[in-house]
Task: structure prediction
Amino acid sequence: MAKPSSLLDTRVIYCGDNLEQLKKLPDACVDLIYIDPPFNSNRNYEVFWGETKEKRSFDDRHESTRAYIEFMRPRCVEMSRVLKKTGSFYYHCDWHASHYVKVLLDQILGENNFQSEIIWHRALSKGLAFNGFPNNHDTILLYGGGERTVFNRPYNPYDPDNLDEKTAGKYSHRDPDGRLYQLSDLTNPNPDRPNLTYEFLGHRKVWRWTKQRMQEAYEAGIVVKPSPGSIPRMKRYLDEQEGRPIDTVWMDIPPINSQAKERLGYPTQKPLALLERIIKASSNENDIVLDAFCGCGTALVAAQNLNRQWIGIDVSPTACRVMAKRLRDVCRIREDENLWLRGKGFVVRDLPWTEKQLRTIPPFEFENWAVIALGGVPNKTQVGDMGIDGRIFPVGSEPSAKKDEQLDFMDDWYPVQVKQMDKVGRPDIDMFEAAMMRAKRKKGFFVGFDFSSDAMLEIGRFFQREHISIVALTVREILDETIALRLA
Ligand SMILES: C[S@@+](CC[C@H](N)C(=O)[O-])C[C@H]1O[C@@H](n2cnc3c(N)ncnc32)[C@H](O)[C@@H]1O
Result:
């Protein structure tokens, strides 16, 4: 596919704070922006992983709302700058701040450019409110860039078994095969059409169609005489109509539930169907879609599937790795610089790959980075992990049993322990040994920046004593990708 703009790169995931990344983009360069920022952006790492406790006092809430709006303001200013005049901006939020966000966007994008407040009914409530109605919808605010925006009106097909009164009244006829239709007028509103004035089935009229077309439609059973002597009319079938235009209340897209095939396990993940609707409605093929808070990359996957160009930004290296894997697995495109230069595949930019940067990311991100880099799966629970941060399932490991409908790989995994410290010491190794004994593991991996000589001696003694091996891996070895041999 040709590059849509020489001004910027697309099919790129940028890892970093979107404020900095957005500043690097030129003015008026993207066609569609969708964002779904976490409410507590100052704690975005927890929010990405689903820490969403709601037990705060009013003052506390007010303070965080203010902080949130002030955090979002410069970012929305940048997004408004990079949006084309014909572009659309979707801001996904909920009751926490939707009314403040509306005021913010009115100020930045212009009150006159507000287009719609979409209510996405989640179908499953997030739990009963302590006192009051359960919160059960998200709010998506849509603004235009200032000029006439792209809008491909979406429709919901009619369900013949569940028609509203007006439509049922209109489509009141039924063919023997069950198809519903209405009868519509075939006479021409313009009386001055000599070419279309002729006699048909005993009626001389000015018709809409030529005589030949009328005759063909009559033979096909589309033009009928409803009763002897009546004027011929045309059958308009319900199932050939576009359907009901989708309005601002979206009740037909369920949230990701525990059984959903697309589910990756992140509570903030939005359904692909939601993003597909937005992208189809407000962009055309090869247009550029930007998600500046892209999480597990739902908007990017939807954009790729719909042949749009895309740019994703997320501050979390883990999120960037998760979405890169998702694009590879779901869209079957390759993460490959050479391919990307030739207009295919995609790239991830600015991941904190240096030792220095890895020392400064939050411990939680560091653990995820290390486990994912080893090809393992990070633990979902970060507290009470009993000394194990992740698991590696060796290639070819087979599930030994099925437990509660989950495949059980219990017999075949290696624990990973990660410490973001300069020198892993003997006490850290002691704790990991205890965790491995409890979990009855024969081999495990320990990641740190370096290991003290005491720690290395203890690893040797442990092997002699218990025949359990601990592989000590340094961050440098992981970065140099020299670990493949040691993982074998
Ligand atoms: C609610 S999630 C988005 C989920 C996404 N819509 C999906 O379906 O997967 C919000 C994301 O914003 C990211 N984020 C928070 N602050 C950010 C910032 N300043 N710059 C870039 N990304 C940020 C978080 O890391 C998180 O992944």
The two ends are 40 Å apart (CA to CA). Residues 41-59, 397-410 have pLDDT under 50 and may be disordered.
